[in-house]
Amino acid sequence: MRRYNLFYFIGQGFQGIFRNGVMSVASIAVLMSCLVVLGGFALLVYNIDVNLEEFGLMNEIVVFVDREAGEEDIQRIEAEIRALDNVASVKRTTKAEALESMKQQSEEYAHLYEDIDETNNPLTDSFTIVYEDNDRVVTLAYLLGQIDGVRKVNNRLDLAVTMSNFKSGVLLIFTWFLIILFVVSLFVIINTIKLSVFSRRSEISIMRYVGATSWFITLPFLFEGVIIGLVSSAAAYFVEMYFYYYIEGMVLSDLQMISIIPPAAIQMPMLWAFLAIGVLSGIIGSSISLGKYLKA
Amino acid sequence: MITFKNVRKAYPNGTVALDGVNLEVEDGEFVFIVGHSGAGKTTMMKLLLREEKVTSGSIIVGDYNLSKMSSFRVPYYRRELGVVFQDFRLFPNKTVFENVAFAMRAVGTPAKVIKRRVPAILHTVNLADKHNCFPNQLSGGEQQRVALARALANNPKIIIADEPTGNIDPQMSLEIMNLLVKINKLGKTVIVVTHEKSLVDYYKQRVITIQDGHVADDHVGGMFE
Lengths: 296, 225
Hints:
heterodimer, A: 296 residues, alpha+beta, 2 domains, four-stranded antiparallel beta sheet, 4 strands, B: 225 residues, alpha/beta, six-stranded mixed beta sheet, 10 strands, globular
């Protein structure tokens, strides 16, 4: 039985790449850039998701009462809060406790608090409310604001909504980039393979006359596309990880309020995703270039 | 056996290249196909190589009905043929050995078979000592012998030579023709398309004359008229 040697096809694929060196390098550069940008967007969306989740996990609302509120009012407010739906627990912090906590948190500025005591404490009593259901938090925040004697309702809803909007915007741009960059990558790969086919047209013609099958003729070009995809993916992976480590360092030192996914957690999924997209682009690009050569 | 049954070939632009062609070529025959430019010889070759499909009628080559054959089977059919062109179509960057081996590799022949068989084929075409030469180091006649060796590489049943002596001098032309006769004597069907009256007249084989898309004459031991 006649068998074809896989190494022959791979070797021919590499030959094709070197034969059209400039176009191959251009294809690799474009595909790599596309993958780096796509990876960047994906990581951004992923990190936003994680941060949003963390905000959500806190499930806390802090309510501040009016300065003029007396003990009776405060107790009434607490009772009204406890009566509300979606409230899991309520913890009162008196203004004296708040002052003490503030002093402890900023010992280096202790002199600022020297003249403040029970008589002139500007802080107010507050309630920290842990709620049950994140989806109904908007209603809860509204009802808390309606309680007589409540001065301010502090929650992270605004930040969460801003983050969520930002994520939607990024996703929209990401989707468009994905489409445009994928089309550009395919276009460049298609042209590279077409050039390769053109430079080997006499070889292809002889192969057809001696009875080579369409697969024998086209496989080297498919391998050429796959190799371009693989090299681009590997290069994109290293560039992406370099930038991610750099950004992680920046976040850990200067932006500690933001959570960042550790690079180790994304390395393998990113590598596999890049390889899959790269190889797929190579195969699709080559197949489009070779359409007519697949016919006898 | 090759059978043309009432073959008609019309191109999309309306040109009728062949019309009502009927002929039979027995296994092991040597046939010259002659005719003036535009007579339909090239179309006949293209139909035989299954580069083109008949418009009507049928062509049967051995077990293959070319009119009904699927594209998938075309490569396997072409392995039954060995083709030689006027312009040799050798790879300038491959040696004589590699040019012949290429045809075998293209159909998946194992390397050890290639290594054993190529020297034998080169011996048949008297090029055993040139296996390491590149085409540009060979004369026109030698290059055509390499092309002939490549045509023989996959042990085809039929050799089709399209103007095989068109690019070489008369002395070399005789050498090539003698080789084709030798190959024919090994049992292969040989079809030679040519313009060269002197060669056709000299070898006195069957001559099929194509004129305006029809078979105008078909004689064994005929002359180019």
